[in-house]
Design brief:
Helix content: over 70%
Low-confidence stretches: none
Number of domains: 1
Largest sheet: none
Shape: elongated
Radius of gyration: 17 Å
Length: 77
């Protein structure tokens, strides 16, 4: 059970790390290419924040499933 929880956390951290890396590269690109409106930057930041929120929400749900003893969540489908 603990092994599943650690695996879920590691996957979530890896996905969030990749997204943050992409965000950093994207905003560095904004600095290199001038003239991109502030509204576009804000929309991109909100989309990325929403993606990170979704990953964290799914992680919390998975940890709750593991704590309830539902190691195989595919059986629900």
């Amino acid at each position: 059970m603990k092994k599943n929880k650690i695996g879920s956390i590691l996957v979530a951290v890896a996905i969030i790390g990749i997204v943050i890396g992409i965000i950093l590269i994207y905003f560095i690109g904004f600095e290199i290419i001038p003239g991109i409106p502030l509204g576009v930057r804000i929309v991109v930041a909100l989309i990325c924040a929403g993606f990170i929120y979704g990953v964290l929400h799914i992680l919390i749900e998975r940890i709750r499933e593991i704590q309830k003893g539902e190691d195989d969540d595919l059986s629900n489908y």
